[in-house]
Amino acid sequence: MRPVSHRRRRPLPRRRAANLGSVGRDENARKRLTRSSPQWAVIAVLAVAGLCSSFMFTLVVPIQTQLPELLNASRDDTAWVVTSTLLAAAVTTPIAGRLGDMYGKRRIVLVLLAVLVLGSVIAALSTGIGSMIVGRTLQGAVVGVVPLGVSILRDVLHEKRVDSAIALISATLGVGGALGLPVSALVSQYSDWHVLFWIAGGLGAVVFVLVLLVVPVSVLRTPGRFDFVGAAGLAIGLIGVLLAVSRGNTWGWLSPLTLSLGIGGVLVLLVWGWYELRIDDPLLDLRVAARRPVLLTNLASVAMGFALFASNVVYPQILELPVETGSGFGLSLLAASLVVMPSGLVMMVLSPISGRLARTIGPRVLLVAGAISLIAAYGFTLLFASEVWHLVIANILIGFGIGFGYAAMPMLIMRSVPPSETGASNGLNALARSLGTSTAAAIVGVVLASMSTVQNGSQVPTPEAFQVSFLLGGGAAVVALVLALFIPTRSVEKHPSLP
Q1: Is the dihedral of CA 204, 209, 215, 219 positive or negative?
Q2: What is the DSSP letter of 305?
Q3: pLDDT averaged over the chain?
Q4: At residue 278, does pLDDT exceed 80?
Q5: How far is CA 366 from CA 163, 310, 329, 359, 370, in A?
Q6: Residues 246-273 pLDDT 10s
Q7: How far apart are CA 269 and CA 292, in angstroms?
Q8: CB proximity list for 417: less than 8 A, separation 6 or greater
Q9: Which helix (H) or strand (E) element contains residue 426?
Q10: Which of 185, 250, 407, 495 is the most buried (most CB within 10 A)?
Q11: Measuring CA to CA, which residue among 133, 168, 113, 145 is closest to residue 353?
């Protein structure tokens, strides 16, 4: 018998040991993914995160007219309380999508929720305009959790459940605003306005813990370096364009400031696009974004965002204006928000139905149906707007339109991009919707301001101004319908140019 050898085992080479360590970490991540929570729990938590993010946009609506007195600032300065949130949401969303693809979608969702909590605390403690703008800017960053949540669903859910889950998460963009408005009105009516921001911070903290405990760690990652130059260029260009659009009515559309910001922003975005096409790891793969189904879906998203926000601007004003103006119904903010609320309820009910319909008839048909419903809503209001119940019916139709349309758009994106691009592509789609809402706020605001009369010392939009606004909203829905009809129906698996 040969004696047993007691030679020392030679250590592994450093590179090989590092590789084995990396493999072990990847394997541990996969094991954590297999031990993840039930799929229904993941869907529920991401839906709550989406509701939380969309709630940020209606949070200050009840106190918006009182902000100059509450913050001891001019009305032009307090307008930044809303504008800053809009800018932060538009800039952060596509950047957060790319970060999610590279470093893990759940990780970036947690970062955005932490930023929301920080911003809410700053706003809740604020007594002046500066800290309030900082807090609201940080709050706006949380909007990126919706496209990231959609991408997470594609990564972790069974194929049969993905469409319904995506429809639910997408619907939260409209549901959170419609349901959050009466909540904000109640809180602001019966307590101090700072409580609104403490509620937002508490909600963000709860959602942070739920995501940490329930949502699985992201295993699918996109290798490469983060494009800091591209992120800076996109941010500068978007801020310039959005500032020109959102503040042009106040500064003057032909003022040097508006023109320099708008034209300068467009030029920066053109240079940014040229740069993105020439680097190996771009912030956004514009070649993917230029594919016909993705491009047409994003353009339709701009139109759908316009149609949605036009209704958010016009209907509450009609409901709240005094009866003696000849344009309104004289309802309180709480009563007006209850009239608008059915649109959010319809979106919530439609979300599981939309997923099943998408599997049966396809998301393009769903988008077409949504656009037709929006056209019907604005057409109905043009013909019948003399009773409050007329506007209830119109808002129900709005709910059908946005419920179907917002459910269909991320499904179309998912079917047209590779898995490694889902976060960034959904972020770009969310940006398209933000551009639509920003444009609607600016254009409808100009119409209502220019077509107005002076009553009791204040400017009041005329009935004709609201009619023109309805025409603009319906026209945007028509554009969305035409674009939807030209979207190809091929899925990502059948697309010849995808890996």
Answers
A1: positive
A2: H
A3: 82
A4: yes
A5: 12, 21, 34, 10, 6
A6: 788 778 888 999 999 999 999 999 999 9
A7: 20
A8: 288, 294, 425, 492, 498
A9: helix 422-450
A10: 407
A11: 168
Q: What's the maximum distance between 2 C-alpha atoms anywhere in the chain?
A: 111
Q: How many CB atoms lie within 10 A of CB 365?
A: 16
DSSP string, 349-410: HHHHHHHHHHHHH-HHHHHHHHHHHHHHHHHHHHH--SSHHHHHHHHHHHHHHHHHHHHHHH
pLDDT digits (tens, 9 = 90+) for 346-374: 888 887 788 788 778 888 999 999 999 99
Q: Is 157 helix (H, G, I), strand (E, B) or coil?
A: coil
Phi, psi values for residue 461, rounded to 5°: -60, 145
Q: What's the CA gap between 119 and 217, in Å, rounded? A: 25
Element (H, E) at 481: helix 463-485
Contact 251, 240 (CB under 8 A): no
Q: For the residues of 53-74, what is the DSSP string, one character each?
A: HHHHHHTTGGGGGGHHHHHT--
Q: Which amino acid is residue 272, in one-letter code? A: W
Residue 240 Rama label (left phi>0; alpha psi -120 to 50; beta): alpha
The per-residue pLDDT for range 31-46, each reduced to its tens digit, is 554 445 788 888 889 9
Residues ≥6 apart with Cβ < 8 Å to 496: none
Strand partners, 455: 458
Q: Look up residue 116 and give its two tokens.
A: 């929301």
* C-beta separation of 115 from 140 below 8 A: no
Which ranges of 215-255 does DSSP label H, i.e. alpha helix?
A: 228-251
Q: Are 407 and 266 in contact (CB under 8 A)?
A: no
- On the 0-12 / 13-18 / 19+ scale of CB atoms within 10 A, 355 is buried
Question: pLDDT digits over 438-453, tens only?
Answer: 788 778 878 887 788 8
Handedness of CA 431, 432, 438, 442 (dihedral sign): positive
Whose tokens are 């680097």? That residue is 279
Q: Identify the helix (H) or strand (E) that includes residue 454.
A: strand 452-455
Rg (CA), the chain: 24
d(CA 220, CA 5): 44
| pLDDT confidence band for 93 (50 / 70 / 90) | confident
Inter-residue contact 453 to 178 (CB < 8 Å): no
CA-to-CA distance for 167 and 352, rounded, in angstroms?
7
Residue carrying the six token digits 């549901």: 175
Model confidence over 305-322: pLDDT tens digits?
899 888 877 888 888 888
